[in-house]
Amino acid sequence: MQTVDRPLALVETLRSRRQRLAQLFPQPAVLWSGGSSGRNFPANTYPFRASSHFLYFAGLPLEDAAIRLEAGKLQLFMDEATPASALWHGETPSRSEIAAAIGADDAYPLSELKNWAEGTATIAVQDAQTRLRQSHLLNRMLMPANAPQDLDAELANAIVALRSIHDELALAEIRRAISVSVAAHKAGMAATRTAKTEAHIRAAIEAVMIAHEMPPAYTSIVTIRGEVLHNAHSPHSLHSGDLLLADAGAETPTGWAADLTRTYPVSGRFLASQRAIYDVVLAAHDACIAAIQPEVEYREIHLIAARTIAAGLVDLGILRGNPTDLVEQDAHALFFPHGVGHLLGLDVHDMEDLGDRAGYAEGRGRSDRFGLCYLRLDRPLKAGMVVTIEPGFYQVPAILQDPQRRDRYRDMVNWERLAEFSDVRGIRIEDDVLVTDTGCEVLSADLPTHADEIEQLTQMQVRRTSRDTSD
Amino acid sequence: MQTVDRPLALVETLRSRRQRLAQLFPQPAVLWSGGSSGRNFPANTYPFRASSHFLYFAGLPLEDAAIRLEAGKLQLFMDEATPASALWHGETPSRSEIAAAIGADDAYPLSELKNWAEGTATIAVQDAQTRLRQSHLLNRMLMPANAPQDLDAELANAIVALRSIHDELALAEIRRAISVSVAAHKAGMAATRTAKTEAHIRAAIEAVMIAHEMPPAYTSIVTIRGEVLHNAHSPHSLHSGDLLLADAGAETPTGWAADLTRTYPVSGRFLASQRAIYDVVLAAHDACIAAIQPEVEYREIHLIAARTIAAGLVDLGILRGNPTDLVEQDAHALFFPHGVGHLLGLDVHDMEDLGDRAGYAEGRGRSDRFGLCYLRLDRPLKAGMVVTIEPGFYQVPAILQDPQRRDRYRDMVNWERLAEFSDVRGIRIEDDVLVTDTGCEVLSADLPTHADEIEQLTQMQVRRTSRDTSD
């Protein structure tokens, strides 16, 4: 992997990306990196994150920069650091040094961009200040990234085609993010039996990322209340009998993400009820991965997860009926209400700034079915795509206590039997999977999924120095 | 301290704050909390931080909420969570529960705010989306927070008067933030001798904050290149002979900040040259703290630091001349180019969103002197203020290699002698200090400053479990 980290590989990769862009979209395009946003006052900013589309073609997280792409050529627009900046932020590379590092054909101050902006396509960035500047320089209305018009929409389509299929450098970066995330999850597991609160485990996980100069790619979910799907806070104390759900992934300095979830017992041992459900979720996870290959519809992978979970819950006596029929009625979604996964790349939900343009094949849209509406990806798989596989089981009060749903699924659910699994609030198992020519590769295979191995990792309880914890 | 954490204390404190506001500013005011900002796509947001002015009067970090203050009354405007939100984010308190928790007199949906906004004063928040909504609802142009007009400027003045002098609840929160930050710095010191990179120490420091559910109040500076004053990255390997500068502070969940810096030897032992300069900086730190009491000008505290550093450098043979004269010529600023500190509160540079309105007494402005222009606070001190005291010594190439400066200070600097201190790149010692009726209290006194004690803490190298590290 070190070979692709050579600057030459970056230059070559970026050239190849823009040449492929030129084939799909021959018109000129300008992509902005965006600027940092003030948190509570202007000088106290959130850590800067460059726009993913910019990162894909510029390779470096430059702040307040823009690139113009046309016919395979790259023009870089950015200002040199001011002398005062050297006092506060140190010496930084010059524009020409950066231009050389990314193989730009030309480099100009930002003020020159106005002479090159007319008639170009673009994609709106996230920060509102830069969006205003985009609109001003292009001298036209700019729609949000999820609703581009005309040329901008064509550019978005071309970028989706490129970014969906990862090149060698992209995969090397994703593997780096996954490698650190695997170490982070193992540190979280090792911390579990001695940790007193969810936040202690979150600290153990994120410390590994910080030690590698990688921020979390998204807000970590580290919770004993796994049934709250996007639970951003970790206030609870841990007790024997709790299951800890940890959904956390690192982001490399050039923006590539990992996205991994494991669920493990605080005590180091699953209760029998927890183990039974865990194995149902794991069976769904394994069945999805076994089915992944080029041309398979991802929606079908989702339905495999749904049917496997339904079948497992029938075996446990929680659901009643034929698994295929239950899934057609969305009964699985009582316990597995979200989609089985999504694209992964520079964004943890890759290209979600473009709405469903990347996730849904042309002409397709969201289902209104309870069991399908949250599916983020509905396309035939292609070699070079990276997707997450993340089935789960949850007891969400807002779903299971809903009188209409209880009535509708009255005969399909054995509520008394379900009550015997009340110690299972939420379980999810998530891996990152590369579609290959012949099937797939689980990129995160170094992080075990089997319940026995999970128990072993949570029982390690190795005494470590701070350094070891952060390694 | 636990007594002030009772909900009743929050309600009473908030009532007292708005009654005092009504005395200073009798007109109605509306303060917005702001919304979260997308990082690389809208659903992947930066962690939400409510506006500090909102937090001061509303007490809770509510997202997309507003409060209206008039004559000591509090009206809360916020929407209830949607049913879908319960699936993704769990059950959240209702508007009326929140209204009760903060002692609101009335509570309404956000759509009602338009009926209450006319003629009110406000302060612009940081996020651009909310600023647009503020302007729209008030039906007028809204200047940035550092340039308010008319009623808004009067409101800002009243808020500065209130927020500058901390009440009991504010002080309890600041003490909480400092307590966690002291533990974090100690963990960083304990990690130093076994850490391989700056990032490993940063991880040890921030893990303690995360374990306490407190984010960093600002981007931590953890670097062996302390001469880069706001060095946000930590890529360097550590080597014996390096000094590690760590400037890091936690923020409580309701927004109150700590701000602490220590500088320590990677090897566990200062070199003689490093120890000599360290003791000069510490002498400046101690002299400032000894001089703090009500009515003393903070600018005078800065000059005490400057003169103490100048005197110490004369004693070491680095500067030549009389310390008072040297400071009048700004010779100290060759090595100590920043101000000695700033206000601390809900913001690490408290109320810096208002520009210098909080930091500078009315009628005063920034000096154009090299040795004073970066001073953030120029007011007489009052009991109840919390300020940082953070003198430093740096060898900044952009300053010391500048031909004009080398010429101007030709006779005041012994450049040959200075070369013997080349292993001292940057040293800063920073504490948080409460001005009391009779003098001051160093709120961060639990974190030692003496070089011998610093060496002991970096030599601890205790083998700890992950839990202990995070405690």
UniProtKB/TrEMBL annotation, chains A, B:
Enzyme superclass (EC): hydrolase
Domain Aminopeptidase P N-terminal residues, every copy: 9-134
EC number: 3.4.11.9
PROSITE patterns in UniProt: PROLINE_PEPTIDASE (PS00491)
Any GO MF annotation of the entry: metalloaminopeptidase activity
KW Iron (keyword) present: no
Source domain of life: Bacteria
Catalytic activity: Release of any N-terminal amino acid, including proline, that is linked to proline, even from a dipeptide or tripeptide
InterPro entries linked: Aminopep_P_N (IPR007865), Creatin/AminoP/Spt16_N (IPR029149), Creatinase/aminopeptidase-like (IPR036005), Pept_M24 (IPR000994), Peptidase_M24B_aminopep-P_CS (IPR001131), X-Pro_dipept-like (IPR052433)
GO BP terms: proteolysis
A Pfam family per the record: Peptidase_M24
Keywords from the UniProt entry: Aminopeptidase, Hydrolase, Manganese, Metal-binding, Protease
Cofactor(s) needed: Mn(2+)
A Gene Ontology term for the protein's cellular component: cytosol
Family membership noted in the UniProt record: Belongs to the peptidase M24B family.
Entries under PANTHER family matching the protein: XAA-PRO AMINOPEPTIDASE 3 (PTHR43226)
UniProt protein name: Xaa-Pro aminopeptidase
Organism expressing this protein natively: Oscillatoriales cyanobacterium SpSt-418
